Amino acid sequence: MKNILRFLFVVFCLFTITNPLHAQWIQTNGPYGGAVSSFAVSGTNLFAGTEGGCVSLSTNNGTSWTAASIGLTSTGVGVLAVLGTNLFAGTYGGGVFFPPTTAQAGLRRVPA
C-alpha cells in the first residue's frame, strides 16, 4: 500500500511541477532577410544571420530588429560567432566578415 501511495505521489508531483515549464512562444517583429540560419549573443545584443545575407541586431530581446550587415558583400550568412567584442559572420562561399559589435561600424572581410 505504501508503494502505491509513493507512486501516486511521485506521478502527482511530476504533473504539477512540469506543467508550468512549457515555453510560451511570442512572435517577434523580424528579423527579416530570409530564413534565420544562426544566432549569436554579445552582452545584451542578440544577432541573427539569415540565408538572404542579412545580419540583424536586437537590443531589446527580439522585440525589434535593425540591420547590422552594412558592408556585407556576400549572400547567405551560415554562422555567427562572438569573440570578445567582435562578431564574426561566416558566409556561404563569400568568406568571413567581422565588425565591432555595433551596427554602425560596417562589416569587414577577414583577409585570407
Largest sheet, strands/sense/barrel: 4 strands, antiparallel
Overall strand count: 8
Count helical runs.
Answer: 1
Detail the poorly predicted runs: none
Overall structural class, as computed from helix and strand content, comes to: alpha+beta
Structure description:
By secondary structure, this protein is of the alpha+beta class. It contains 1 helix and 8 strands. It has one helix at 2-18; strands at 36-42, 45-50, 55-58, 66-67, 77-83, 86-91, 96-98, 108-109. It has a 4-stranded antiparallel sheet with strand order 1-2-3-4, with no helix packed on it. A hairpin with a 2-residue loop joins strand 5 and strand 6. The longest helix is centred in the N-terminal third of the chain and has 17 residues, at 2-18. The chain is elongated and about 70 Å long. It starts with a helix and ends with a strand.
